[in-house]
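hi!! sorry for the late reply, been swamped w classes. u asked for the two structures so here they r. pasted raw, havent cleaned anything up. first the sequence of the first protein and right below it the tokens
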Amino acid sequence: MPSFDVSSVGFAVLDILGYPVSRIPEGGHADFIEQIRMTVAGTAAATAVDCAILGLNTRMVSTVGTDEMGDFLINKMNLFGLDTALVRRDDSVQTSATILPVRPNGERPALHVPGTAATFDVAEEDMEAALDANIIHIGGTGLLQTFDGVNTLNFMQKAKALGRITTFDLIQATPETTALVLPLLSYIDYFIPSIEEASAMAGLASPIEVARWFKERGVKNVILTMGSEGVYVDPDQGLPFSLAAHDIEVVDTTGCGDSFSAGVIVGLAKGWTLQESVRFAGAVAAKVAMGLGSDGKLISFDDTLHAMNSWPLKTLKAPC
């Protein structure tokens, strides 16, 4: 029996966030804002942190630098209860980092240094331990220059050969990302991209058509996150369905997709139906959107479950 509930593999980044930022001051002038925060972020690391907050036994598999930013990420992950034995250190480049001036409406333009995201790989001697979990989450395809492609395919093939459940998300996907992802699709049990990323890859706009495009190419369950418009799901079993987003006041959308993945993973780990898991994931994302950074206002499983059952929902729009 695997040692961990989930092994989260891939992109880890230090986010430095400021809120609210309505403009960049000219010259050497300064504006005063309400909050600045540093967080563990990234399509694998933020998901791992949120899984740990929600009670899962979680292993993080990534690479950070030997700098103070790498120290921060590892120390913070440990405080959240993550197993970081497979977070390797690389002294050839700096830790991946992003500056995020978060706008008053929650949008966040980014200034990013790829750093260790580009050098991350799963070493052969780490392979068995990296796969020692019931659920294998891969996050960050598109930025993981060394791991992307054949190495990711090899890793996912090993995961499925062991009977693991695989969840998958990417970042900053473009039409060029499609070639990296196509060979992986038949090994993905739960594909959880944003509609913008999935549309860019499929070359289609409609959530129905986008989901069908990925399923025709091997994905078992397609889960398209659509921000304030909720989520569209085309499952392996049963009919497609949509769920509305919670009606909340958004502070920051950083990490909402990552936290949604965490919610789905928690539901799967608990043996819930896909619809129950996706519904819970919506509440997880709402808790994150209400605060600054990739963990936002996420506190615990019980608190999130209460939010899921009590917070109002937006009016659901039928996908087209």
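now the second protein. again sequence first, tokens right under
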Amino acid sequence: MQPDQEQSIHEELESITHFAQKSLCVANTLGVANELAPDDAGSTSKSFPHAAWEACANAGIQGWTTPTTYGGQGYSTSDTCKRLAALGLGCDDNGLLFALGTQMWGIQKAILRFGSDSQKEKYVRGLSSGEMIGGHAINEPDSGSDALNLSCTAKQTSNGYVLNGLKTYITLAPVARFSLVYASTNKEHGRWGISAFLVDATTTGYNAKPADAMMGLNSAPVGSIVLDNCEVPKTALLGKEGLGASIFNYLQLWERSLLLAPQLGTMKRQLNNCIHFAKTHVRNGVPISSHQSISHKIANMAIKLNTCQALQDNAVNILDADEQSGYHASMLKIQINEAFEQNSRDAIAIFGALGYSANEEHERNLRDAIGSSIYGGTNDMQRVLIASHLGL
């Protein structure tokens, strides 16, 4: 890469960070403080930040990974991760960042890889413009980490399919215009009898329920979807019958590798804030940074951040080479999640009562970090996958 290219990318990343700070985090910039403010004051608010989502769309963020053919920016995986980290540095709404990631690495990737031309034209273009929001409807009451243990069925008819079942804990279900729904089209074939469907929220028999109150990430509302004799045309099938498990596994690789990329920026902001606070906060006549109990916490935060960055870069290189490695994806997800959680705990300890206050972001970061130990496959399950790759 030439020096002028590096300078151009650096300037663009700075502009993204500036955009996040001014348009997303400083709500008064758009005059919609109540809509843009993240889940503050310890709230379990279930509202979706529509104004912030629109601001992102106007900046082209939802289309970063989308080919220009469908109205996107066509950025590489590496460039998109850098931009997401810049966004995470400037935006303190982890729920919004999580919601953006689910669209980029979950819904869009599925349709681009397995969808028909008409499906790509309708859904990918709509997602890239921010006009559409999609839900990833895999979870069911009895599935848990065994995500492909489905009860939802799709029976073929002369006109298409009839779907029946209940989907639970679906991110963005209450605001989604459509959902990627997994259902069994052939029970005898087990997971290889699972198919995937693109189901519009306006379809008769598709009923999204109000959002559940969650511990964190509250600007990415989670809800359930009831499918009651929901009739869809044949064109709703994504790929071929029986391809659902392959689609799901493909998306899990991308999500586990890239969904937490913005948290690298968030951890960088945490580190910067803790350094500034420790150097300027005086106790007994000296800055608290002079105490090893404080400075060592900050040093450990820096170590974790740089380790996460190295693993993230490695995962991106693997994906850019069109290779698949669940082994590396699982390690990366665990590392970023557990580093973010511990760094959030350390930030609270460094800031003391101020860190515990709901008026600051530190306690919110901790609540949000805990969520990432569950979604995309629990950390315990990731360790099982890693062990299996090691022959254990």
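hope this helps!! also noticed smth abt the second:
The beta strands are 134-137, 153-156, 160-171, 178-184, 194-200, 206-208, 222-233, 237-238, 282-283, 286-287.
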